[in-house]
Amino acid sequence: MAATCTAVWADGVRYLHTSGSGHALVTDSAAPVGAGTAPSPMELVLHALVGCLGVDLSMILAKMKQPVTGIEISVTSDRAEEHPKIYTDIRLHVKVHGAVSARKLERAINLSQNTYCSVSAMLAGSAEISHTWEIVDQVDR
Length: 141
What we know:
Largest sheet: 3 strands, antiparallel
Number of strands: 6
Order of helices and strands: EEEHEEHHE
Radius of gyration: 17 Å
Distance between the termini: 40 Å
Strand content: 35-45%
CATH superfamily of the largest domain: K homology (KH) domain
Number of helices: 3
Structural class: alpha+beta
CATH architecture of the largest domain: 2-Layer Sandwich
CATH topology of the largest domain: GMP Synthetase, Chain A, domain 3
């Protein structure tokens, strides 16, 4: 399945992107290169990673019949010093709300990271990706 995207220059280093599905977003770069009015393309890579993990967790935990009432995913990262300044270390933190099994949450995260998440698979070739997690309202099962 082919995916498409178009980027049209707005000004400076800002671009308006339109996906093949018709959704739009803007990218920019932080000063001094850009005005910092929108996420940078590299920030969008991290957004894609946490979005991919989020979709997977929502689906996997639902299939596991886990009573999830909320999911928050945060990421911190390090980049190479030299160009092309790729991500070298990515640390994900998953916070799940609900009476969720710790064992099942760990399994769901591993399934996403090692099997289902395409973004994780692409980044794993150049970055060390790790995760931590916590459960609010946890019960042991």
